[in-house]
Design brief:
The chain is an alpha/beta fold. It contains 17 helices and 14 strands. The protein has an eight-stranded mixed β-sheet with strand order 3-4-2-1-5-6-7-8, with helices on both faces. A six-stranded parallel β-sheet has the order 11-10-9-12-13-14, with helices on both faces.
Length: 412
């Protein structure tokens, strides 16, 4: 098949759409990617890309076409302009970049913002190709949950846009079964919705014992390390995490290590300094996905958290699968689907979303377990991940749905 992948985010940014593209190419498909200039999560265009854009024109055998994009930067205005720039350039420049090319299907990777789907829909119409959209973020509910939009009228407008987009997709793929009702409410047809959860990246296929400990962790080899890896944003509820760390400041053996970056990182640095927690909460910065096993090797538990909002209770954070595959116990501060997976897997302990006291208690409980018991938890999580989130089976399903949608479109 000739497949077009549309995504505002793509390699060298670390998103699972990279895995999708690489696997489709390995399976013999001709894949083209339409994306923007890489700038997530730091907010500035990657230095390597600025120096040599041509080096990023192909990925694992797929051609990568990039439209101009205003970097995210810092602040809400720049973020809005970033979102808008991809939509506008995707609508006007995307068809020109792809002129004369035909496609059997279009795959849309939809995180925030959902407006990024508009270029995919236009291209689907121009190319007479079905659009399959992988929904990882539920709009407009997420906007309300993180406080970005408070006006019911504006949320209603966004809801109408969401309905417009869903109704024009041949398939809507959802990362959690709890998404079904929300997608249906905004216009998705149930018979066109498919369950397509995330998987652990191939980086975590190896046993963690084979990894070499990251040199950045050498000062922190003693004691019990709670490690967070990923985006430092509003949804992750870092105020509650910092509060839990403060509650355990008397425990000299417990340390909180944070890998990653994001829009809430400046606040986090200031809050750590304000509370005098610099020796308890250590920010290690952003590192490539390929290095994560070497960092996870030094963790006693891997932390996943989401704010106490109904919309987040429907979500399985993408890091959960990666954590499970690593063979390290999880400690969660979240509700709903994410909590269910951790408990069902027997892979760790869970506190209710937003409950710093309960998180502190669960961390202490994990730290107090024998090492062999924690190892059993980690191995249970790894086995669950292989069983429930098998990458090969999921990619075979995607391949089948793309082919089905293409056949339906041609028959019409």
């Amino acid at each position: 098949m000739r497949i077009l992948v549309v995504s505002q985010y793509f390699w060298p940014e670390a998103f699972r759409v990279n895995d999708v593209v690489a696997e489709l190419v390995r399976r013999g498909h001709e894949v083209t990617v339409l994306t923007g200039r890489p700038n997530y999560p730091g907010g500035e265009v990657f230095e390597d890309y600025r120096r040599n854009p041509a080096a990023f024109s192909h990925f694992e055998g797929a051609e990568v076409l990039r439209v101009p994009l205003r970097p995210r930067g810092q602040g809400s205005l720049r973020l809005m302009l970033n979102y808008l720039s991809f939509v506008l350039w995707g609508l006007f420049w995307g068809p020109w970049l792809l002129r004369g090319r035909g496609f059997d299907a279009i795959f849309m990777f939809q995180t925030s913002p959902i407006t990024a789907a508009l270029p995919a829909l236009l291209l689907g119409r121009l190319k007479r190709a079905p659009v399959l959209m992988w929904v990882l973020d539920l709009w407009p509910d997420t906007l309300a949950a993180v406080g970005v939009v408070k006006s019911p009228r504006v949320l209603g407008w966004v809801g109408r846009l969401v309905a417009f987009i869903y109704r024009r997709c041949a398939r809507v793929l959802v990362q959690s079964k709890a998404f079904y009702s929300n997608v249906e409410r905004w216009g998705g047809r149930r018979h066109d919705i498919r369950y397509f959860p995330a998987w652990a990246e191939s980086t975590f296929d190896q046993e963690l014992d084979e990894a070499v400990l990251a040199p950045e962790l050498e000062p922190y080899t003693e004691g019990f390390n709670v490690m967070f890896a990923g985006n430092i944003g509003e949804a992750q509820d870092f105020p509650a995490i910092v509060h839990a760390a403060d509650l355990l400041r008397h425990r000299n053996d417990i340390r909180w290590l944070v890998l990653g970056d994001g829009r809430a990182a400046p606040w986090l640095r200031e809050e750590i300094a304000r509370r005098g927690l610099a020796d308890r909460v250590i920010l290690l910065g952003r590192h490539p996905l390929e290095r994560m096993p070497s960092f996870f090797k030094g963790a006693g538990a891997l932390l996943v958290s989401l704010k106490p909002e109904p919309i987040f209770a429907m979500t399985i954070p993408g890091k959960v699968q990666s954590y499970l595959a690593s063979g390290i116990p999880l400690v969660g501060m979240l509700d709903g689907e994410g909590a269910r997976v951790i408990m069902e897997a027997g892979a760790g302990r869970v506190a209710p979303a937003g409950d710093a006291h309960a998180l502190a208690e669960q961390v202490q409980a994990l730290a107090g377990l024998p090492a062999e018991e924690r190892r059993r938890m980690g191995q249970a999580g790894r086995a669950y991940c292989r069983r429930e989130f098998d990458r090969n089976q999921l990619m075979s399903s995607l391949e089948r749905w793309l082919a089905e949608a293409g056949t339906e479109t041609r028959s019409r």
